[in-house]
Structures are given as structure tokens and as C-alpha cells.
Specification:
Distance between the termini: 23 Å
Order of helices and strands: HHHHHHHH
Shape: elongated
Helix content: 55-70%
Radius of gyration: 21 Å
């Protein structure tokens, strides 16, 4: 896929962007008392500037702060008198700093991951059929399904890189490369 092909992709930003590891570390340091809230706020402000600049450089028509300054969605209410979930939010963050859960799969990853999962299902179905019927037609369909799945796997990696996620270990763990036929 050429860069010009990527420029034609529709981009919908819904919700937060994943924070850079350095910002997560800063949140953890603040939660543990090793960093003041004002120092954290300054680091968040710089991270927001960086992520907005990256989105603008990519050409996103609408940019977001990625919700970098929030631990979770209801922290916005912590300024409301009587709302007492701020401390609970910090405890929850300390327990799961990445705010990721194993059940998060394609339904939270978008169209590309759903296409990847569909292609992998097709490949698995054809693999089972190929074990019984080794016809050339089926072998070609099997190879095409593998190529399609690998195309969508690569596209998912590119999509993640576009928002600054250069570590592909998660993709490798959840969607390992399919073996060559």
C-alpha cells in the first residue's frame, strides 16, 4: 500500500488515544507521590501538543487532545461538588496503568481489525477444507486468504503507527503471522 492510498482512508477519532509510555510513567509517578500534579499537568500539556502536531502532520481533518489529561472518562466530573470518584479513579489507574483489558478485540479496534479477523476466519476455514481436499483451486483460495489476512495485519500495524504506536508486540500476540502454505 502506498502512502497515497493511506491518505484516502476515512479517519474517525472516537474517544481517547493511547498515551505514550513516558506519559503513563508520569501518571504513575504522580499517583505514587513521586511527581507533583502541576509537574504532571506540564508533561500532559507537552504530550497534547505533540499528539495534535502528529495528527496535523498526518492530515487528519479533525484533531483531538487524545484525552491525555484524564485517567478515565468520569474524572471530568471530579470538579463537581459531591463527586467522590477521583481517588477511586487513581486507584483503578494504579491497578491497570495501560487501561487495557484482554477482552478488547476488534470491536474496539475498528474496521481494519474486523477485516483482519474475517480474513483470518476465512483462512482457518480453508485450512480445514484443504486438509481433506487438496485440490489446486482450494490451494489457490487458501493462499489468497492468507495474503488477504496478512495485508490487513500489515494495514493494522500501519494504522497503529500513524497514531504513534510503533510497538507491534500486541499485534504479534493477538494476530500472529500466518504460516506460509
Amino acid at each position: 500500500m502506498r502512502r497515497t492510498d493511506l491518505l484516502g482512508l476515512r479517519v474517525d477519532q472516537v474517544g481517547s488515544l493511547l498515551r505514550p509510555a513516558s506519559l503513563i510513567d508520569s501518571f504513575l509517578a504522580c499517583a505514587k507521590g513521586g511527581l507533583t500534579r502541576s509537574a504532571l499537568d506540564a508533561l500532559v500539556e507537552q504530550a497534547v501538543r505533540d499528539v495534535v502536531a502528529k495528527q496535523q502532520a498526518i492530515g487528519f481533518p479533525i484533531v483531538t487532545d487524545g484525552e491525555f489529561g484524564r485517567i478515565n472518562w468520569h474524572v471530568s466530573f471530579s470538579q463537581i461538588e459531591g463527586w467522590a470518584l477521583d481517588e477511586a479513579s487513581w486507584r483503578s489507574f494504579l491497578a491497570n496503568p495501560a487501561m487495557r483489558h484482554e477482552h478488547e478485540r476488534a470491536n474496539t479496534l475498528g474496521r481494519v481489525a474486523r477485516r483482519l479477523e474475517a480474513a483470518r476466519r476465512r483462512h482457518a476455514e480453508l485450512s480445514a477444507r484443504l486438509a481433506v481436499d487438496g485440490s489446486e483451486e482450494l490451494r489457490l483460495a487458501h493462499r489468497a486468504a492468507r495474503e488477504e489476512a496478512e495485508h490487513w495485519r500489515w494495514t493494522l500495524c500501519v494504522q497503529r503507527e500513524a497514531i504513534g504506536l510503533y510497538d507491534h508486540r500486541w499485534v504479534d500476540r493477538v494476530y500472529p503471522a500466518l504460516p506460509a502454505a
